[in-house]
Amino acid sequence: MDGSTALYVGTHETYHQYYRSLHDEIFMQVKESDSFQQLIELITRSTYYLIILEKATLQGNILELLRVIKANMLLEWIPIIVHAPGLPAEEKNDLLLAGVEIIVESAIRATDETYIRIKNLLARSKQFESMSFRDPLTKAYNRAYMLERLAAECRLAENNSGVLTVAFIDADRFKQVNDTYGHAVGDLVLIGLYNRLKLNLDKHHEIARFGGEEFIVMFPGENKSQAQNHLQRVLQSLHDVPVAESEAGNHFITFSGGVAEWKPGMQISEVIKLADEAVYDAKNRGRNQVII
Ligand code: GH3
Ligand code: MG
Ligand code: MG
Ligand code: MG
């Protein structure tokens, strides 16, 4: 995850400069074309609401790239714009059939119809992402998103001999918050807990609300003890600073965390189960701690 909203893949000087100049309008990240595999990984690991591809840069790979994107539940909804000046009608049809939304044939300005259509697409895809993949209360990713994302990250780890760690987090004695201060305060505490996780973790540590007061955090490329360190930092912050404030005063919360490492051949459900079992240990040992 990064701050970019849209991705532009291309090396064409004019478009390159053009998209850089539009950056403030639609938060474009401009990329030189990476290798095909790098590109897929970048798209999978980031949150783009729009992808703009330069046909000339991707050459014959473009249909293959579109096929991969459209076959991936996490990516298939992202609107794709292709820059292809002077493309023969037949090839245009191929791109449209492969799911491309707009084929741009000349440079666009901020007042052009195409530009306005691109902004509309962007707004619609943000809404779609939020409705499909986010929890309405906290705005954290939802369970469906995380299960897909973890499965994808498992495949990457499998192919690249990579490391992947998963943490399960369960708020401590959360029912007491509801019972003492009411459900609305409970909601604020959940939102506060998610925001604190986000604030203290890195942007590539994706966080999902898995159930009521339970979250899952994915740590790609990191081992168990690294993940444990990150989460202990969050616990320290939760100890120091309240997560929410209400008429009743400041509210603090702690969590019990369980961390498990993916190993080659493992299903993601097994890793989650191990992390969940470690949470159980953390609860038994007095809560407010992370067990690996
Ligand atoms: P433990 O330390 O053992 O985890 O205790 P706990 O009280 O956190 O666990 P328990 O499973 O007993 O209670 C979880 C509570 O979370 C019960 C449920 O009402 C509450 N809850 C689940 N989802 C929400 C929500 O969206 N908002 C609020 N306010 N409460 C919720
Ligand atoms: Mg629970
Ligand atoms: Mg419980
Ligand atoms: Mg709990």
Automatic annotation (TrEMBL):
Domain GGDEF: 162-292
GO MF, one annotated term: diguanylate cyclase activity
This protein's name: Diguanylate cyclase
Coiled-coil boundaries: none
Species this chain originates from: Paenibacillus lutrae
Covered residues, full protein: 1 to 292 of 414
